[in-house]
């Protein structure tokens, strides 16, 4: 394929040399069937190395008023680690998650799939304390570095075992909102049981697969949560995929 019409121009320009290199390495037997190639545009240029460190500058603004906050969030992470892939929508996307979490009235926030700290650090100015939990040790290391680099002192990050993800969280559940951004398969049974046992005031659920999100929504409704908002974001234009953010409030 000589060009991708929904890729950035920088990626399309880089494709010329990358394609030549891939064909050479293919003939040399370096690739197996089903191999994955990485092409990611970042501040450093187009990245193809999975072990490279990437920098993203994210201007924060309100998705409602359009007013920008007086600073941007600079995040660094490994190219191989998960990170949202659409920088054009990311400011409004992160701003919406932050606004929905803050609107819960909670004083504390837990980001249960925090990665390198995107949602936790974007939301930190709106909360007394923030905790990020992630099973990827490399992502947690970068999240801590990102907090320090952005001058954010009320956020801490811990590498949590999936079986005991809330064990180290000492926030009062009634004053806590939880942000979750699970893999495409959605939340597993163990995580949901832990979340419902913790019983936060509200949950902001980010999903890249509305089907598994709706499956999990039935569990939230049965556990005493009410759906208060639904907002899709077209992070994958001209494909069937989208991100969807739903907000849930604990009833009673």
* Count, helices: 6
Number of domains: 2
Q: Which CATH top level class of the largest domain fits?
A: Alpha Beta
Q: Biggest sheet: strands side by side, in what order?
A: 7-6-5-8-9-11-10
Question: Which stretches of 5+ consecutive residues score pLDDT under 50?
Answer: 64-68
* Oligomeric state: single chain
User: How much of the sequence is in beta strands?
Assistant: 25-35%
Give a written overview of the molecule.
The chain has 252 residues and is an alpha/beta fold. The chain folds into 2 domains: 1-37, no CATH class; 51-250, Vaccinia Virus protein VP39 (Rossmann fold, 3-Layer(aba) Sandwich). It is built from 6 helices and 11 strands. It has a 7-stranded mixed sheet with strand order 7-6-5-8-9-11-10, with helices on both faces. The protein has a two-stranded antiparallel sheet with strand order 1-2. A two-stranded antiparallel sheet has the order 3-4. Strand 8 (176-180), helix 5 and strand 9 (202-207) form a beta-alpha-beta unit. The protein is globular.
């Amino acid at each position: 394929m000589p060009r991708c019409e929904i890729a950035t121009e920088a990626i399309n320009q880089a494709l010329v040399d990358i394609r030549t290199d891939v064909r050479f390495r293919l003939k040399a037997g370096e690739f197996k069937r089903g191999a994955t190639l990485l092409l990611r545009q970042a501040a450093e240029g187009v990245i193809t190395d999975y072990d490279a460190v990437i920098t993203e500058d994210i201007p924060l603004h309100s998705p409602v008023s359009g007013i920008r906050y007086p600073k941007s969030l600079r995040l660094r992470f490994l190219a191989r680690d998960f990170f949202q892939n659409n920088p054009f929508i990311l400011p409004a996307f992160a701003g919406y998650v932050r606004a929905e979490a803050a609107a819960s009235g909670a004083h504390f926030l837990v980001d249960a799939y925090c990665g390198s700290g995107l949602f936790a650090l974007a939301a930190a100015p709106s909360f007394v304390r923030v905790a990020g939990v992630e099973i990827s040790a490399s992502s947690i290391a970068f999240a801590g570095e990102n907090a320090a680099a952005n001058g954010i002192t009320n956020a801490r990050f811990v590498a949590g075992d999936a079986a005991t993800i809330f064990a180290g969280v000492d926030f009062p559940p009634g004053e806590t909102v939880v942000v979750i951004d699970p893999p495409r398969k959605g939340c597993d049974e163990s995580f949901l049981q832990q979340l419902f046992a913790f019983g936060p005031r509200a949950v902001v659920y980010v999903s890249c697969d509305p089907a598994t999100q709706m499956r999990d929504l039935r569990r939230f409704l049965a556990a005493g949560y009410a759906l208060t908002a639904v907002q899709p974001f077209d992070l994958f234009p001209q494909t069937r995929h989208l991100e969807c953010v739903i907000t849930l409030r604990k009833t009673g």
